[in-house]
Amino acid sequence: MLSSFKKSDKDGLATPSSTPPSPLSFPANGSSPGGASRSGLGSRLGERSIPSVIGPDLTIMGNLVSRGEVQVEGEVQGDIHGTNVVIGERARITGGIVAEEVVVRGHVMGSIRGRKVLLQSTSHVEGDVFHQTLSIEQGAYFEGKSRRSEDPTADVARPEIPDFAARSGDGVAPYLKPAG
C-alpha cells in the first residue's frame, strides 16, 4: 500500500503524513480499475470476501468445497461446490459445478447447477446446465441440455467441510501438530 509522506522540518528526512491515504475506488459500473468487467459477480465489493483462487499453474485432482467464492484459472479434475464459482478463460474443469452463481469463461466438461449461470463468449461447456436463470453470450459454445428449475441446487448434497480446529480443541489442525 502506498503511503503519503511529508518532509520533516527538523532533519530533512521524509516522515509519514498524518493524513491517511485515500482508498482505491472502482468505477460505479462494476468494472475493475483495469477496465475488465466484473459482470455482476463480486461487483458489490463491500458484500463479498476474498475469493479462493486456483492459479493457472495448478492442477487439482479431487473435489473442491468452499463456503465462499472460488475462482479457477487452472485445471480441476473433480467437482466444485461453492457459493460463487468463476471459471477463468484458461481454466479446464472435468467434473460438475454446484453454486448459487456460476460464471464460465473457460472449458467445463460436466454438469453445472446454479441459480444464476452465465456462459461468457469465451466459454466452452459440454454438459447439462440446471439453472433458475441462464445467460449465454454470443460466441459461447454450449453442448448439452438446459433445464430450468426453481432451486437447481436442492437435489445435490453439499459435502461437509471438516472443521479441524474445532475437533482438535486447541485451534491447531491435527495434521499440523508436531509428533510426540
Give structural notes:
This protein has a domain at 49-146. 3% of the residues lie in helices and 37% in strands. The protein is built from one helix and 17 strands. Residues 1-9 and 11-46 have low confidence and may be disordered. The strands form three sheets. Strands 3, 5, 6, 8, 9, 11, 13, 15 and 17 form a nine-stranded parallel beta sheet that branches. It has a six-stranded parallel beta sheet with strand order 4-7-10-12-14-16, with no helix packed on it. The protein has a two-stranded antiparallel sheet with strand order 1-2. It starts with a strand and ends in a 12-residue tail after the last helix. With 180 residues, the protein is mostly beta strands. A hairpin with a 6-residue loop joins β1 (5-7) and β2 (14-16).
Topology, element by element:
Layout: E1 5-7, E2 14-16, E3 52-54, E4 59-61, E5 64-65, E6 69-72, E7 75-77, E8 80-81, E9 84-87, E10 92-94, E11 97-104, E12 107-109, E13 112-119, E14 124-126, E15 129-136, E16 141-143, E17 146-148, H1 164-168
Parallel strand pairs: 3-6, 4-7, 5-8, 6-9, 7-10, 8-11, 9-11, 10-12, 11-13, 12-14, 13-15, 14-16, 15-17
Antiparallel strand pairs: 1-2
